[in-house]
User: What shape does this take?
Amino acid sequence: MGESKAVFLSYASEDVEAAQRIADSLKTAGIEVWFDQTELRGGDLWDRQIHEKIHDCRLFIPVISTNTEARDEGYFRREWTLAVARTRDLAEKRPFLVPIVIDSTPEKGASVPEKFHQVQWTRLRGGETTPDFVSRIATLIGSPLSAAHASASIGSRSIPSATPPARWTRIWALALLTLSMATAGGGWLIWRQRSPVSAPAPVVKDEKSVAVLPFVDLSEKHDQEYFGDGMAEALIDLLARIPGLTVIGRTSTFQFKGHNEDLRAIGTKLGVVYIVEGSVRSAGSRIRVTAQLIDARSGAHVWSDSYDHEIGDVLVLQDELAAGIARALQLVVGADGRTLVGTVVNPDAYKLYLRGRFAFDRLDLAGFKEARGYFEQALALDPSFLQSSEWLLSAYGNEWFLGGIPGNVALPRIRGLAEEILQRDPASPLAHAELAWVHAYYDLDRGGTEREIDAVLASKTRNPYALYITGYIASTVGRHDDAARLLHEALAIDPLSPDAYYALSGALANAGDYVGSEKAGRRALEISPSVEGIRVNIGVALLQRHELTAALHEMESETPIGGRDYGLALVQFALGNKAASEAALDRFVRDYGEIFPCQVAEVYAYRGQRDLAFRWLDKSLQVHDLCGIGLETDSWLVSLHDDPRWKVLMNRVQSGSKTGDRN
Assistant: This one.
């Protein structure tokens, strides 16, 4: 039998409902699906049919979940082995494996064949598909669909969730990535898993510009990936302190992790002249790091060196490597800023810190909790370790956001940690930036928020995270010139950061520039096509411009966990479809109302249901959600301004008091 255009769907029996949703959406779009609930049942012929179907299918879709992780044995694992075996006979460029994750199972460390880790994963919470996913599958099998056909294949089911799914994850040090953009009208921001870079190239501007790629783990046991990531990040931090050298941020460079892309192409996409790449190899108590500097214009080898040290000398190794790269770039490494405040002297603490960063990068609740444990252990060994303190702040913030720690517990702890950091480093831009968020969203303290913004501006930081955290918060208090400056500085350092464009989109919307907001949102989508949530942001910008049909298309193209029902509740009401608006809001309240009560209030206010709007705004203030001082300028709440209750609410906001607080 020759190859067909069918898709083979492989799953654990516990995941049959999610697999059925995926199969139904694909079949509705006219895609043939081999799915053992139907065609593949067959008694004694089962094994032979499975072999034949996997051999003849066009795509193999393994469904990965906590259920597959929990099972060391299962027929699905035999199917996975057969699929991997078939890839050995296929051209490298030929797509065949399309792994799908239906819950919060992290990609790193997942119990799957190594071949699965070499391709892009897609997250479809509970098996809920999107038009983009269906269109992508159709394109891969050679039967591209129209947008309308893809949209028609998507069911209306929504997946309830007691706490936010993994894809709602945000890095607290990048808090704006998942904040609802209250002052812009509630656009939806969420953290995304990285996807391969496909964005147009920025223009190279500086001869003294460099990007550091993640270092490859060449250890025999392949157990030093965390160390390779940490080495690259440490170099980024050290090189960024060299006057006159433009260093690309981690978010942009780490998008190329695991991709064997030509270095000249990477240099073009990042807008740099030079690229540093390297490897780490451990043997006993020693670590060997090899690095090379490449001219990204020609691909020519400029410099290389190897460094062999005891693991306890890792900081010396980093300094030597940074100095070698600087000399190769014909720059002088000045004393100013070379030494990090509170540099760790305990090698065991440093290893714990690196393991914490590695766990943090899983971007799920379990990963943040594990990371917090590592950072706390590192600080117990070396209380002066500043970076560990800063990332402990981030871990606490993420656990709070995901519902792992109540706000009344997490936020005071975040404040305390930030204040401890500032005692050791009064200019720490990250600590000031995070305190700005605490003041804005917990204390409702506008004066405190603005003082922290001023502190970040005065620091002249080159940390892109601190820059766009502060840039967005500046826009919420009306400091639009400062916001533009901070965000464009962040993008100059991190040009392929979809998160920075996300922040820019929100800041432009806050300033009333909905055309610019849409453009920035679409740029984020170009960089990371699989991003969830950005289409709702774009849809909000279109809705504000009364482009209702276009806004509806963006909302319908979003996923449930990306805020689709929130957006649909707004747009359907604007179109006069009250029943559809009510159904969408019901789903949103069921799934996410306890997490984002402010957004529920926005919909009710937009629909003229004032009593319900004020009831949900009261909840918003009680639970410390992410509206805070932004309530004052939230455009969706304008219809409430002539209600006497609005003045009472604003008095509470302006005084920083919140009904129900026990602090």
